[in-house]
Amino acid sequence: MIEKRTEKTERKLESVDQRMQERDKEVENSLIQMEMERASYYLRFQNVVETKEEDLTDIMAETIAITLQREKSEIIDELDEVYRVYKNYARRFRLPREVHILARKKVRDIISLYREESMIYKGKEITTLKQVPKRVQEQRKEYHFLAARLNKNNILFRWIIPEGMLVSWQGKKIRIDTLEKAREFHAQLLGTEEPGSSREELESASQEDQQLEKNRTDQEEEEGKKEERPQEEKRIRTRAQTEARNYRY
Questions:
Q1: Please, are residues 130 and 29 in contact by the beta-carbon 8 Å criterion?
Q2: Hey, what CATH class is 133-194 in?
Q3: Is the pTM of this model over 0.85?
Q4: What is the pLDDT of residues 177-194, one digit of tens each?
C-alpha cells in the first residue's frame, strides 16, 4: 500500500516537473520574441570611415538614403540615435569604431536591400549587421557544432526564432528546433560524407566540429569581455533630438 502511494506521488511530481519545464520554456521563448522585436530597430555598421568633428547622423542618413534611393530628410526623421562604439577587434586591426543606429521604424528594408547592393562611404564598403540579443546568442551556442559542419560543407541555413535553424539540403527545407534533431542531422551528415567510416571515426569528426566551434565561441567571449563599457560609448543624437533638447533649455 505504501509503495503504491509512493509511486503515485512520484508520478505526480514528475508530471508537475514536466509542466514547470514546459512553462519555463514558454516564458523563455516569449522573452526571446520580445528581445528580437526590440532588436529589429537596431543596426550595426562596420568600416565606416571616421573623421574628426563628423556629423555622424548626416553621414549615415545620406549613405542609407543613396542605397535605398530615398530622400535624406526622410531617413533622418526615422533615426532616433546614431553613435559610435569601440570594439576590441576594431582596435586590434586599426579599424574605425562601429556605428550603431536605433531607428524609429524596423530596419528590415535596409538589411534586405544591403544583400543586393553594397553600401559605400568614402570609397569603403560598409558591412551591415543585425543586432542579436545576448539571450539568443547564448541559445545558439548549443547548435554551433552543427553550424560548423554546415559551413564546412557549404550547406545553406538560417537561424530561426525562438530556437534552432532552417537548413536547405538536397532540395528540401529541414527545420531543426531541438538539440536532439541537431545531433541526429549532424550524425546523418557525417555518415553521408564518409559512408564507410567506423563509429569511432564519426565520433572523432563530431568532437572535432564541437571543439572548433568551442574555440571560436571562447574567443568571441574573451573579446566581449574586453569591450568598452556602455557608458564609454559616444552617443550622437539626431538633429531633431538636439534641437528639442536645446529648446527645452
A1: no
A2: alpha beta
A3: no
A4: 999 999 999 998 887 655
